[in-house]
Write a structure and sequence with these properties.
Order of helices and strands: EHEHEEHEEEEH
CATH architecture: 3-Layer(aba) Sandwich
CATH class: Alpha Beta
Largest sheet: 6 strands, parallel
Number of helices: 4
CATH superfamily: P-loop containing nucleotide triphosphate hydrolases
CATH topology: Rossmann fold
C-alpha cells in the first residue's frame, strides 16, 4: 500500500484538503483509506452508551458493529501511543492511505499552509515534505500548489506514489 501524508499547523486547511483529496482520488477509481492523528484524548462513543460503559468497566477492546459499519476501540490505558507503522498494519489493503498529521514520521507529505495562521513553514526544515499547498506565494524548495487546486495536488501525490 502507498502512504502519503497531509501535515500543517492548526487551521492550515489539512482536514479540508484531506476531504477533497479523498473525493478526487476515489473519483478516479482508486481505493483510499485515511488515518488521522489526534493530539488530544477523544471518544468515539458517548457516556451512557453500551460501548462506553464496556470501556469504562475495563474492557481492553470494544468492537461496535451494525449493518452500516463497525469500529474497534482499543484502550491504551497507561501504555505508550501506538506508532504509525503499527496502525497502518491494521488497515485493509487499498491503493492509497492518506495520513493526516504525524508530521514527524518518515512518509512523504504535503504541507497545508495558510498565511493568516502566521505559523512557520514546516517544509523549510523537513525533507519528507515534498510539496506545499498554500493560499499564498512561498519561498521554499518544494513545489507550491494553490491550496484549493485539489486536482493538481492529487496529480502530484499519485505521481509520487506511482499510481
Amino acid at each position: 500500500m502507498k502512504v502519503y501524508g497531509v501535515v500543517g499547523y492548526k487551521n492550515a486547511g489539512k482536514t479540508g484538503l484531506m476531504e477533497r483529496l479523498v473525493t478526487e482520488i476515489t473519483g478516479r477509481g482508486f481505493t483510499v483509506s485515511t488515518l488521522k492523528h489526534a493530539h488530544h484524548t477523544f471518544d468515539v462513543d458517548h457516556p451512557g452508551k453500551d460501548s462506553y460503559r464496556h470501556r469504562h468497566a475495563g474492557a481492553h477492546q470494544v468492537l461496535l458493529s451494525s449493518r452500516a459499519r463497525w469500529a474497534l476501540m482499543t484502550e491504551l490505558r497507561d501504555n505508550d501511543e501506538v506508532p504509525l507503522a503499527q496502525l497502518l498494519q491494521q488497515l485493509d489493503p487499498v491503493d492509497l492511505i492518506l495520513v493526516e498529521g504525524y508530521k514527524r514520521d518518515d512518509h512523504p507529505k504535503v504541507e497545508a499552509y495558510r498565511a493568516e495562521t502566521n505559523h512557520p513553514i514546516i517544509a523549510k526544515d523537513d525533507p519528507t515534505i515534498r510539496a506545499v499547498a498554500s493560499d499564498c506565494a512561498l519561498d521554499v524548495m518544494q513545489p507550491v500548489f494553490d491550496l484549493n487546486d485539489t486536482k493538481a495536488i492529487a496529480d502530484f501525490i499519485l505521481s509520487e506514489v506511482g499510481l
